[in-house]
Amino acid sequence: MSLFSNISRAQDLDKSTVKTLDLSSYLGTWYELARFDHTFERGMQEVMAFYELRDDGKIDVINSGIKNGKYKVAYGKAKLTDEAGVLRVSFFGPFYSDYRVLMLDDDYEYALVGGKNDKYLWILSRNPELEDEDYDKILTEASRRGYDISRLIWIDQ
């Protein structure tokens, strides 16, 4: 596969976000059920994310998990954007990345989240497991959007 076909595939992704995101409903604890591989979470299991609104309107982000038998925590921050369903998240000083809520259950029980390109994709849930029909909905949606769901790494919770 050439570099140009990779660029074309990334441009063909449907990165559109949910039309509305009720932040107060989205805050709290999420279990990471699956993700695309990337260096900053490589080897992590039992991964969870916690989002909490700060007094200044930004959001504290606390990601945690187990790597090589040791509990690891990463602290970050996020801020809202003018685009519905898009947060800007930073774990490294002034450097922010897109956090795009692509799909969200009506009751905020599960979410499909991506980044600005095809390198990042997460399946999140309020519970450590989902019903098979919910997995099917999420995987169908990710595939419809152009993501290669065979790249997903399933996380032990």
Structure description:
By secondary structure, the protein is an alpha+beta fold. It has a single domain, classed as Calycin beta-barrel core domain (Lipocalin, Beta Barrel). Helices cover 17% and strands 43% of the residues. The protein is built from three helices and nine strands, in the order H-H-E-E-E-E-E-E-E-E-H-E. The protein has helices at residues 3-11, 23-26, 132-144, and strands at 28-36, 45-53, 59-67, 70-80, 86-92, 95-104, 110-114, 121-125, 152-154. It has an eight-stranded antiparallel barrel with strand order 1-2-3-4-5-6-7-8. The chain starts with a helix and ends with a strand.
| Class from helix and strand fractions | alpha+beta
Number of β-strand runs:
9
User: What is the CATH C-level name?
Assistant: Mainly Beta
Backbone CA Rg: 15 Å
Weakly predicted, low-confidence segments: 1-8
Taken together, the total number of domains comes to 1
CATH superfamily: Calycin beta-barrel core domain
Query: If classified by CATH, what would the architecture be?
Result: Beta Barrel
> What's the CATH topology name?
Lipocalin
What is the H-and-E element order? HHEEEEEEEEHE
Helix content: 10-25%
Label the overall shape. Answer: globular
Percent of sequence in beta strands: 35-45%
Q: What is the distance, rounded to the nearest whole angstrom, between the alpha carbons of the first and last residues?
A: 35 Å
The number of helical elements comes to: 3
| Strands side by side in the biggest sheet | 1-2-3-4-5-6-7-8
Main sheet overview? 8 strands, antiparallel, barrel
Compute the average pLDDT. Answer: 92
